[in-house]
Amino acid sequence: MYRIIRVSAGQGYTLKVVFADGTSGMVDLSSRLFGSVFEPLRDPALFSQVRVDEYGAVCWPNGADLAPDALYRAISSKSASPTVLAL
Length: 87
What we know:
By secondary structure, this protein is an alpha+beta fold. It is 20% helix and 29% strand.
């Protein structure tokens, strides 16, 4: 399992993600913030409260979370621009 050690919110609903093995990159969530859990993250104040939970997953105070393995696959197979994550 991949473990995230650091995450920060960027411009336009992007996340900078750093994994324990040193892999890092940007993920663009701008087109994926829909549904009852993710739509509230369109509020920049809430989106910026992103953190890493005790299991090494990306999460927000409203209960939204992202699996580390999906983020790892997206980042490790990307080009130089932020990857659009398929949730």
